[in-house]
Amino acid sequence: MDDRLTGLIDRTKGFLDKEEGFRLYTVARDAGRLGPCLEIGSYCGKSTLYLGAGCREAGSVLFSVDHHTGSEEQQPGEGYFDPETYDVRQGRMDTFPLFRKALIQGDLEDTVVPIVSKSAVAARRWATPLGLVFIDGGHSFPAAFTDYQSWVGHIMPGGYLMVHDIFKNPEEGGQAPYYVYQKALASGLFHELPMTKTLGVLKRLACGELPEDLPK
Ligand code: SAH
Ligand code: MG
């Protein structure tokens, strides 16, 4: 990643640590060789710039899904509200203009396919196998679980599932992302890779691969 892109990422609003972002980039670079990648929760494009840069290097594509009207905690009066994301004409949040600006400035318009939709609607007739799914959308239990169950079945053998905002200690944060992370592990279909801060990284077993804990 060049200095121009890292400078743009620093100026882009979002909820992602630099180390986590760099991990998104390196995993996307690998996953992009398998197939297209998909994220849920674009917001203003911070994670998209990292994932998109990795996909671009791999010659791949990133589908970036967000209804762009914000999560519960980002609404006016809530803890993570940012007035610059509010559109007075619509009378609601709209992060799409800022997201689009980030894509243009990051020279990612030939790599990133924005999908302005609820995750579950975009998933309804989805039929494309994916090299990577990154879940960073709504943080209620129903929202996080819906994202997981909508997309997990599309991850290719050898592909990745990444989940943001994993707090193993409930005192540090909400438990919905950790819940879906554990569900994925319990399925037996994924290897657990080292986490980067609150970013969980799971790799789907390749065709014919056996899990490490398989009884002899
Ligand atoms: N990945 C971003 C942060 C995402 S914040 C970053 O790097 O900064 C969570 C985003 O999820 C918000 O933009 C919100 O609009 C979106 N979101 C929440 N629930 C959603 C749903 N059901 N479908 C699509 N997007 C959703
Ligand atoms: Mg997050």
Structure write-up:
The protein has a single domain (3-213), classed as Rossmann fold (3-Layer(aba) Sandwich), CATH 3.40.50.150. 34% of the residues lie in helices and 21% in strands. The protein contains 7 helices and 9 strands; from the N terminus they run ααβαβββαβαβαβαββ. A hairpin with a 4-residue loop joins strand 3 and strand 4 (92-93). The N and C termini lie far apart (44 Å). The model has no long low-confidence stretch (mean pLDDT 97).
CATH H-level superfamily title: Vaccinia Virus protein VP39
**Roughly what fraction of the amino acids lie in strands?**
15-25%
Q: Output mean pLDDT.
A: 97
User: How many separate domains make up the residues?
Assistant: 1
What is the overall shape? globular
Please give the number of β-strands: 9
